[in-house]
C-alpha cells in the first residue's frame, strides 16, 4: 500500500491489523508454528479493535478502518482455518463499510487503492457464490471511470464485475416457470459482456502479448511445488501486473463463457463446428491459467501473489474435471496443495474451501 506511511500511527485498529498480518506472513514464510499461534492472538486483538472502530460512526468512515478490515481478509488468506467463512464475512463487512461511506467518499489515491482491492475480493466471492455484487451498479461503476481510462486492471474489473449477476440470473432461469424472454435476454447480455472482454484483451495486447514462453524449470522453486511438466512451457510476464490481469481475464472468461456455453446447449441448437469452437475457447482459458500460475509461485512475488493465483487455478481444475481431463486436473490439485504450506494448518485443507459458505449464502438476501 503506497499510502500506508501517511496513515495515522495512533490508529489502534490499523496497528493491530498490521501486527496480525505481519506475524501471519512471517509465520508462513518461515514455517514457524509458535508464530502462527502468536498471530492468532494478535488477530483476536485486531478483531476487537475493528469491532470498536466500526461501531463508532466517525471512525467507521475513515480510510484506516477500511484498510484494517481489508488486511484481516488477507490474514484469512494466509492462515485462516474457517474454510472460507472468515474471508467471506470480512468481505461482507467491507461491502457494508463501502455502503455506509458511499461512492463519493473515494477520492484520494489510497482510498481508491483500497476500493480496487475490495472490488476484486467481491468479484471473487461473486464467482464462488454465483451471486451479484452491489458494486456492479452505475453509481459504484462511476467511481472507477477515470482510473479505467489509464489502468488496464481497473478497466478489466469494470467488465468482470458484471459476471456474477449473469451467474445469479442463470440459476434463476433454471427454475420452473421462467419465460423465454428472460433466457434470451440473459444470453444476449452474456454475449455483450464477452464482447467487452474481448475488446479489453485486444487493447491490452495491441503491441503483442505481454509475456514470453519459457521453460517451467526457469521458474524459481516451482518444480519443488509440483515436479510434473504437464504445462510446459509457461508464461513469463513482462511485469507483475500483466500476470495479474491475464489471470483475472482467463478465470473470468472461463467462468462466464462456460456458463454461456451451457445456456446455449440447453436452450439453443449448436452444430458440431460450434461445439468444437466452444471447446477450443474454453480449453484455451484453462490452459492459460495453468501456464500463468508458476510465475506467481516464485519466492520473489511473495505469498500474497502465490495464494492469489490459486483461485483461478481451482477454476481451471473444475473445468478439467468436468471435461474428464484427469492429468490436467491432477496437476492443478498438486499445485494447490503444494503451494498452501499444509503443515501450518490445524484443519485438513480442502480443494473446495467455500462449499460450506455457499450453503449459508444460497438464496439469502442478507448478503451483498
Word description of this protein:
The protein has helices spanning 12-30, 33-55, 63-79, 85-101, 109-129, 138-141, 145-148, 152-160, 163-173, 180-204, 222-225, 240-267, 272-296, 302-308, 310-323, 326-339, 355-361; strands at residues 211-214, 234-237. The chain is mostly helical and 368 residues long. A two-stranded antiparallel sheet has the order 1-2. α2 runs antiparallel to α3 (63-79). The mean pLDDT is 91.
Write the layout of secondary structure elements.
Elements: H1 12-30, H2 33-55, H3 63-79, H4 85-101, H5 109-129, H6 138-141, H7 145-148, H8 152-160, H9 163-173, H10 180-204, E1 211-214, H11 222-225, E2 234-237, H12 240-267, H13 272-296, H14 302-308, H15 310-323, H16 326-339, H17 355-361
Helix pairs in contact: 1-2, 1-3, 2-3, 3-4, 3-5, 4-5, 5-9, 8-10, 8-12, 9-10, 9-12, 10-12, 12-13, 12-15, 13-15, 15-16
User: Which range does the strand content fall in?
Assistant: under 5%
Helix content: 55-70%
**Total number of beta strands:** 2
Regions with little confidence, pLDDT below 50 for 5+ residues:
none
Q: Tell me about the largest β-sheet.
A: 2 strands, antiparallel
Query: Which of globular, elongated, flat, extended, rod-shaped describes the shape?
Result: globular
User: Strands across the major sheet, in which order?
Assistant: 1-2
InterPro entries: Fun_TF (IPR021858), Osmoadaptation_assoc (IPR053178)
Keywords: Membrane, Transmembrane, Transmembrane helix
Transmembrane segments: 236-256
Amino acid at each position: 500500500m503506497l499510502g500506508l506511511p501517511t496513515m495515522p500511527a495512533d490508529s489502534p485498529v490499523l496497528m493491530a491489523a498490521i501486527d496480525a498480518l505481519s506475524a501471519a506472513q512471517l509465520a508462513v514464510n518461515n514455517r514457524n508454528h509458535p508464530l502462527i499461534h502468536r498471530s492468532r492472538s494478535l488477530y483476536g486483538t485486531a478483531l476487537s479493535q475493528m469491532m470498536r472502530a466500526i461501531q463508532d460512526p466517525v471512525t467507521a468512515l475513515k480510510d484506516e478502518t477500511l484498510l484494517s478490515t481489508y488486511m484481516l481478509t488477507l490474514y484469512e488468506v494466509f492462515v485462516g482455518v474457517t474454510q472460507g467463512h472468515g474471508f467471506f464475512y470480512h468481505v461482507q463487512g467491507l461491502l457494508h463499510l463501502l455502503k455506509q461511506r458511499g461512492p463519493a467518499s473515494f477520492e484520494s489515491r489510497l482510498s481508491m487503492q483500497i476500493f480496487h482491492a475490495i472490488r476484486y475480493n467481491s468479484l471473487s466471492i461473486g464467482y464462488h457464490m454465483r451471486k451479484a455484487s452491489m458494486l456492479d451498479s452505475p453509481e459504484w461503476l462511476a467511481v472507477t471511470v477515470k482510473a479505467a481510462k489509464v489502468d488496464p486492471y481497473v478497466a478489466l474489473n469494470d467488465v468482470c464485475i458484471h459476471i456474477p449477476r449473469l451467474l445469479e440470473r442463470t440459476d434463476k432461469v433454471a427454475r420452473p416457470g421462467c419465460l423465454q424472454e428472460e433466457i434470451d435476454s440473459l444470453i444476449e447480455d452474456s454475449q455483450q459482456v464477452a464482447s467487452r472482454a474481448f475488446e479489453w484483451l485486444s487493447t491490452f495486447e495491441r503491441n503483442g502479448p505481454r509475456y514470453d514462453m519459457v521453460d517451467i524449470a526457469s521458474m524459481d522453486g516451482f518444480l519443488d511445488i509440483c515436479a510434473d511438466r504437464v504445462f510446459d512451457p509457461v508464461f513469463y510476464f513482462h511485469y507483475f501486473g500483466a500476470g495479474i490481469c491475464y489471470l483475472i481475464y482467463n478465470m473470468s472468461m472461463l467462468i462466464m463463457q462456460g456458463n454461456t456455453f451451457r445456456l446455449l446447449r440447453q436452450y439453443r441448437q449448436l452444430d458440431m463446428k460450434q461445439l468444437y469452437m466452444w471447446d477450443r475457447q474454453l480449453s484455451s482459458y484453462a490452459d492459460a491459467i495453468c501456464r500463468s500460475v508458476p510465475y506467481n509461485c516464485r519466492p520473489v512475488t511473495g505469498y500474497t501473489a502465490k495464494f492469489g493465483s490459486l483461485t483461478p487455478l481451482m477454476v481451471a481444475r473444475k473445468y478439467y474435471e468436468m471435461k474428464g481431463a484427469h492429468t490436467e486436473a491432477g496437476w492443478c490439485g498438486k499445485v494447490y496443495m503444494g503451494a498452501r504450506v499444509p503443515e501450518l494448518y490445524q484443519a485438513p485443507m480442502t480443494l473446495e474451501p467455500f462449499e460450506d459458505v455457499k450453503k449459508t449464502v444460497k438464496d439469502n438476501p442478507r448478503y451483498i
